[in-house]
Amino acid sequence: MTAVAGTPARTSAPPPAPRSRRDLHLGLWARVTLAVVVLSLVSDVANAPDLLSAGSVGATLRFTVPILLAGLAALWAERSGVVNIGIEGMMVMGTWFGAFVGYQAGPVAGVIAGVLAGAAFGVGLAVLVVPLRIDQAVAGLALNLFAAGAARYLSSVFFEGVPGGQITQSPRVDPLPAISVPGADAVLSPVADAGIPVLSDASAALLGLVTEVNVLTLLALLLVPATWWVLWRTGLGLRIRAAGENPAAADSLGVSPFVHRTIALAVSGALSGLAGAFLVTVAASIYREGQTGGRGFIGMATVVFGNWMAVPTAIGAFIFGFTDALRTRQEATVGALLLAAAVAFVLLALLRGRHRGFRDALGWGVAAALLVSVIVLLPVVPTEFVSFAPHLTTLVVLALARQRLRPPAALGQPYDRDADL
Amino acid sequence: VTRDRWAAAAASLVPAAVAIAVAALLAGVILALTGADPLEVGRRTLEYGTSARSATAVIDRAIPYYLAGIAAAIAFRAQLFNIGIDGQYRLAVLAAAAVGAAVTLPGPLHIALMVGVAMLVGAGWAAIAGLLAAYRGVSVVIGTIMLNAIATGLIAWLLDPSRLGVRAPGSNNLSTAPIPESGWLPALPTPLGEVNGALLGAIAVGVATWLLLGRTRYGFDLRALGTSLRAARVSGVDVRRTIVTTMLLSGAIAGLVGLPGLLGDTHAYGLDFPAGLGWTGISIAILGRNHPVGIAVGALLWAWLERSAQILDLMGVSREVVTMLQAVIVIAVVVAWELTRRASLRRQRRLAGMLDQEDAADGPIAAGSRA
Q: Which residues lie across from B195 on neighbouring strands?
């Protein structure tokens, strides 16, 4: 109910006055509540208890964190005006150096090595695109190519011949420890098992969030508010965003776009490296070739999804992580999720129809109808389709969402101080 | 005009050659740091790479690279980043293989049918990204990345034994049914030995692209779009239509990328069919400066490096050092071009400055004009 009451304030256009931050948070929590209620009801209707269990929430977190970190990496770079297509390659370097140092000196040292390797590549990209002004996409792609070759070459030199190591994988890396909120299990477990309609599911989900959470997962989650705070509440963040909006104006006020784009890309690289190190030390406890699996690119998509804002980008990463984690769950769960998406689309269509008229609601209504027909026609969704569910979701959402996206104004443009001389 | 063109070609070749030399030097340093003898490696790879048998192998390998490069270049010219060539050609070659295996026709017709199917499927898959970009503002980069992942899932689903897939006895590899011999492309005899018959097709695609981009109204619109969106719009280019047609064209050529391998070599599409050629094509388009002739040079260089690298495994050096070398070459060549461009810009400005002093009235205009 809170969501329905809260949403009109958020969506009625144009907003008469800037919304206060309190309002925004209310909207966010209302949405989370609504999502939990819908998922809980759907899991009862579709008989898929796995949809909102502690296990599925834990898996969601594991799948979310690399995408989330890649998304934050893209956010830092793009807010400074640079499209970082090299995130994938920086993640690869994070996995390789994380494993190389990690299996010899422990997982903490491995994580630090992964972060440093990523940051080094971030600075390397900065050298190419900031002073040298090479096309950003070209430089990023070349970096990805280099990282793929380097990881394999270095593996052939350093992993081959070591016990447990091969050209495509490293020896085992010890995992980082997981922690739980003391007493959470004792309080939440009985509620989760009690079988109360919505409350039990909510407790089970919460249980997955507060017990057996890896320290690196926690760190990654904290990096979301940290990113928001640095980019939107500090002078450094303002200067970085200025470099991404109007570098010439920033430069004329003594804020060097060169310095701030380089800083942003170093952070972007470090975050990508951390994402890679997470894969090695938490998700898999080993380096494996192709481990990053295109998550760097998905991270770039979450930024578009999140309209270049920190918290919406994180929400995009969660949606990806959730659908990504589904491949490891039961088949009934997938059907249930489709049902949940259909319900969400119907709700959106109704809301849009009420506030913005028929045309706006049409797209979402059509999408909901398509989903319902898929559910009717395919009682069991093929596992191959589940593998691209997040990607299809992104396309549908980006195509349907009203195009109110506002990327940084100077995104992708090299800054040339002498351009008008 | 022709002299200017030769001068322009030299202006891009000389810095590129210097950059490649620098990249090779860097690869030597990497080899030396990891305990291999760079001079010996260089001598053996050069010897192996210049043998007569390598020549035909290089050409065979360069054909799909060239097609992928052209597909990437067409989109690049309009400032569209078609990362989806990978998904486009894999879906296209799967469809061509399935159709080709299902029918028996006289040779040329059989092959023409498969070519048509591949181009249609490639164009159709690329058109999704084009339409989303033109009418819903979804960036081509994001759209094609998503479509690549979706194509991978679709292909896995279609190759299931209950659909198009056939499991070869004694192996785990799933593939489509074999294409009957009427759909095989004959090899092309050359003085060096036999090469894949698709070479002629690739040359035809190159010539057609050159004519289309340089000699037609559509080519002009496409390049205008790539130079300045605003200028294109003002000069009456239908931006949306040009985006969609460019993606259609790029996708249609991407659909051809897998055909030399399918028609001339494997005669079936399986899970072990080469993937990732789209990325190679993008790198080669960059090296070739999006020009059909430059792309040919880039594709041959790329193929030659990979062919030469095959000897490395015998020497106990991982051939992946060549992948690193390729990446460094792309970066070094692009940096070299940027630096030469700036140097010539500075020269022009100095010249303009001298003219300013002679004719003060022209001053502000000349000084304010950009290259």
A: B188
Nearest alpha-carbon partner for A93 in A277, A217, A263, A283? A277
ipTM: 0.86
CA A212 to each of CA A185, A263, B235, B241: distance values in angstroms, whole numbers, following the listed order = 10, 34, 62, 53
Contact B156 A138 (CB under 8 A): no
Which tens digits make up the pLDDT trace of B126-167?
A: 999 999 999 888 889 889 988 998 999 899 989 988 888 888
Tokens representing residue A267 in the block:
């952070």
B107 near B197, Cβ under 8 Å? no
Span A290-300, average pLDDT: 89
On chain A, the residues whose CB falls within 8 A of the CB of B330 are 138, 141-142, 145
pLDDT band at A418 (very low <50, low <70, confident <90, very high): confident
Burial label for B84, CB within 10 Å (0-12, 13-18, 19+), is: buried
Q: Which residue reads 């009427």 in tokens? A: B182
The one-letter amino acid code at A241 reads R
Nearest to A69 by CA among A295, A240, A228, A281: A295
Angle between helices B321-358 and B292-309 in degrees, nearest 10: 150
Rounded to two decimals, what is the model's pTM? 0.87
Cα of B249 vs its chain's centroid, Å: 14
Which of A296, A240, A224, A221 shows the shortest CA–CA distance to A411? A240
Alpha carbon distance B209, B222 (integer Å)? 12
- Smallest CA–CA separation between A388 and chain B, in Å? 5
Tokens 């050359």 -> residue: B190
Query: CA of B149: which chain A residue's CA is closest?
Result: A388
- Give Cα separations from B258 to B253, B268, B326 (angstroms): 10, 11, 22
Q: Is B83 helix (H, G, I), strand (E, B) or coil?
A: coil
Q: Crossing angle of helices B85-102/B239-256, nearest 10°?
A: 60
Helix/strand/coil (H/E/C) assignment for every residue in A320-371? HHHHHHHHHCCHHHHHHHHHHHHHHHHHHHHHHHHHHCHHHHHHHHHHHHHH
Rg for chain B, CA atoms, rounded:
23
Q: What is the pLDDT of residues B74-89, one digit of tens each?
A: 999 998 989 999 999 9
| B359 backbone dihedrals φ, ψ, rounded to 5° | -130, 90
Mean pLDDT, chain B, whole residue set: 88
Q: Is A411 near chain B, with CB under 8 Å?
A: no
Residue A156, chain B, CB below 8 Å: the answer is: yes
Residues with Cβ within 8 Å of residue B122, at least 6 apart in sequence: B88, B89, B91, B92, B251, B252, B253, B254, B255, B256
Calculate mean pLDDT across residues B238-249. Answer: 94
| Minimum Cα–Cα distance from B319: chain A residue | A153
pLDDT at B3 over 80: no
> Each residue of B268-296: pLDDT tens digit?
998 889 888 999 999 999 999 999 999 99
What value, to the nearest 5°, has the Cα angle with vertex B4 and ends A419 and B8?
Answer: 55
DSSP-assigned beta bridge partners for residue B193:
B190
Residue B366 has pLDDT above 60, yes or no: no
Lowest mean pLDDT among A30-34, A414-418, B257-261: A30-34
Helix (H, G, I), strand (E, B) or coil at B89: helix
Q: Is residue B42 within 8 Å of B28, Cβ to Cβ?
A: yes
